[in-house]
Design a protein that fits this description.
Elements lengths: L2 E4 L1 E3 L4 E2 L11 H12 L5 E3 L2 E4 L7 H19 L4
Antiparallel strand pairs: 1-5, 2-3, 4-5
Length: 83
């Protein structure tokens, strides 16, 4: 049940969405992603360009679908920063 998503600015070059150890404005894309996830009820663990997803092993199918929908909405926000 433990997995991670790595966000990139460009799929072809795999350029990271934010620079290594980014802070301030440089970290804005991941901050926006995290804020959108929280607004939809998911509190992500974000580390640089990754978000770790760790639902409990007792999660129901309905809860998984709800969580994936929240992540999908947050990824739409991150898409605004991609090529």
């Amino acid at each position: 049940m433990f997995w991670a998503l790595e966000l990139v600015r460009d799929r072809e070059t795999r350029e990271p969405l934010v620079p290594y150890n980014a802070t301030g404005d440089a970290a804005a894309p991941m901050a926006a992603f995290a804020a959108a996830a929280k607004a939809h009820g998911v509190w992500p663990f974000v580390n640089m360009n990754r978000t770790h997803v760790v639902p409990p092993c007792t999660v129901t199918e309905a809860e998984l679908k709800e969580g994936l929908a929240a992540l999908d909405a947050a990824l739409s926000v991150a898409d605004e920063y991609t090529v």
